[in-house]
């Protein structure tokens, strides 16, 4: 235990002496998560709109008057559809609206048609913009609907996108940082030429591997507390409806999984550049199969089965359930069990691979 603690604290001291590495980790857990939450908007913002109005009526002007900032720029009028399409082609506008000559007459007869031209190269914002336009147009209709539709937003009542974006970025950063740190702590010994000196240490190689990898997991846990406390809770007001202790345990189990991958990378990589390359190559499929980019239910059936091998899938599901849904720890036993099993398997695999170099 004395040898373990000596190596453990030695690695922590070496980390805090490396100002560049400390700055990268702090930036990743704070500024990067903040930018991801604040810098990306899914809802329309400052969307450029052009229109052609052949009706010259009151209704078309009323509809256009609802397209105001900050969602939309002031609509620009064009004299013909050809000019409108040319502006769309040149990316001068994102949305084009065409009011037919009989639009106002057809509107009062409840058969009006509104033509919308959409630049779908910006697909996410384009189709959200289309939904905004549909809601605006529906306000003018007097359609009788046999059922009164009431929407109840659960878990995120204000539909606050930054909360989800910041949490998703945190999970991705945690994944990459754990893999990289677990690799760097060994690879820097190769680069600095101290690997042979480390082998001559009167300490069991297993103690060295455990102490070095555990020290990096401790750094990641410190970064997690800083990110969650300052950025997620402080800036984005992320709710914590479940157990915070359960979240920390879940994070610890997940860190063992990614640390095992980092040990494998360290056993193969010879320098820092190879660490970065291998980390990205290995982690991209894991992130893709986790459901963070594409919902698992919309994947191909074969990929849905492969996603069961991604530890990030269980970590994301567990974190979202704890933060937003307030799910009981007992109801998340599958996530805890899966992360425990994957953590043991992946860590032991990486442990054996790096152990062959001693």
Question: What does this protein look like?
Answer:
This protein is mainly alpha-helical. It folds into two domains: 2-40 and 157-355, no CATH class; 49-138, abc type-2 transporter like domain (abc type-2 transporter like fold, 3-Layer(aba) Sandwich), CATH 3.40.1710. It contains 14 helices and four strands. The chain has helices at 2-17, 19-39, 58-65, 81-89, 103-108, 123-138, 161-192, 195-199, 205-235, 244-268, 272-289, 301-306, 311-325, 333-355; strands at 49-53, 76-77, 95-99, 114-118. The protein has a four-stranded mixed β-sheet with strand order 2-1-3-4, with helices on both faces. Strand 1, helix 3 (58-65) and strand 2 form a beta-alpha-beta unit. Helix 7 (161-192) packs parallel to helix 10. The longest helix is centred in the middle third of the chain and has 32 residues, at 161-192. It starts with a helix and ends with a helix.
């Amino acid at each position: 235990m004395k040898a373990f603690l000596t190596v453990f604290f030695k690695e922590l001291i070496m980390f805090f002496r490396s100002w560049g590495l400390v700055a990268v980790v702090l930036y990743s857990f704070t500024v990067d998560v903040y930018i991801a939450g604040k810098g990306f908007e899914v809802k329309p913002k400052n969307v450029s709109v052009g229109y052609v109005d052949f009706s010259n009526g009151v209704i078309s002007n009323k509809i256009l008057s609802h397209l105001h900032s900050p969602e939309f720029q002031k609509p620009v009028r064009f004299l013909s559809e050809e000019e409108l399409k040319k502006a769309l082609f040149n990316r001068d506008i994102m949305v084009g609206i065409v009011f037919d000559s009989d639009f106002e007459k057809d509107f009062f007869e409840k058969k009006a048609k509104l033509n919308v031209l959409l630049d779908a190269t910006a697909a996410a914002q384009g189709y959200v913009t289309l939904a905004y336009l549909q809601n605006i147009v529906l306000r003018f209709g007097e359609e009788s609907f046999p059922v009164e539709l009431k929407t109840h937003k659960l878990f995120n009542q204000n539909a606050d996108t930054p909360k989800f974006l910041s949490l998703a970025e945190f999970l991705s950063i945690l994944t990459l940082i754990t893999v990289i740190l677990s690799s760097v702590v060994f690879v820097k010994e190769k680069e600095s030429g101290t690997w042979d000196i480390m082998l001559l240490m009167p300490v069991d190689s297993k103690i060295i591997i455990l102490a070095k990898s555990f020290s990096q997991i401790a750094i990641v846990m410190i970064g997690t507390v800083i990110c969650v406390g300052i950025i997620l809770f402080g800036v984005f007001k992320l709710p914590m409806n479940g157990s915070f202790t359960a979240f920390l345990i879940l994070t610890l189990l997940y860190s063992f999984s990614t640390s095992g991958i980092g040990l494998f990378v360290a056993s193969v990589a010879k320098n820092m550049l190879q660490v970065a390359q291998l980390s990205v190559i290995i982690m991209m499929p894991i992130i893709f199969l986790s459901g963070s980019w594409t919902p698992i239910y919309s994947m191909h059936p074969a990929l849905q089965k492969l996603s069961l091998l991604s530890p990030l899938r269980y970590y994301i599901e567990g974190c979202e359930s704890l933060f937003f849904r307030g799910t009981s720890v007992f109801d998340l036993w599958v996530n805890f069990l899966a992360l425990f099993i994957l953590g043991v398997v992946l860590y032991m695999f990486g442990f054996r691979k790096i152990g062959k170099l001693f």
